[in-house]
Specification:
Length: about 100
C-alpha cells in the first residue's frame, strides 16, 4: 500500500495479486492519480494470502507478449518462496547467466 501511495502522478501502474492464480487491479497501466491510487489501495486491502505461492505465473503474464503494454519495471512482493509453478527457474537462470550452482 505504501508503494502505491508513494507513486508520483506522472507514473503509470497496476497491481497483481497472486497465489495459484493471478488477479489484476487493472489489466492495463493506469495513471497514478489520487483516485486510482486510492482504488488500488482499497483493492489491495481486500486481498488475502491463500493457496500456494506461484511467482512464475504473474511474471510470465506481465513480461511475455502481449503482457501489459508499457511495463518498464516490475516490483515483486511475496510472502514466501515459490511453492507452485516453476520452482527452480531463478536458480537455473543464475546458473545459465553466471555459471554458479
Amino acid at each position: 500500500k505504501d508503494a502505491v501511495d508513494a507513486l508520483a502522478e506522472h507514473h503509470r501502474f497496476t497491481v497483481l495479486h497472486f497465489n495459484t492464480s493471478v488477479q489484476y487491479f487493472e489489466r492495463r497501466l493506469v495513471n497514478a492519480s489520487p483516485g486510482n491510487k486510492l482504488q488500488a489501495i482499497q483493492w489491495i486491502s481486500k486481498a488475502t494470502p491463500d493457496g500456494m505461492t506461484n511467482i512464475s505465473q504473474p511474471l510470465l503474464e506481465v513480461l511475455q507478449s502481449p503482457g501489459i503494454p508499457g511495463v518498464t519495471e516490475v516490483h515483486l512482493l511475496s510472502d514466501g518462496s515459490p511453492t507452485h509453478g516453476i520452482l527452480n527457474a531463478w536458480q537455473q537462470s543464475l546458473t545459465d547467466k553466471f555459471g554458479c550452482p
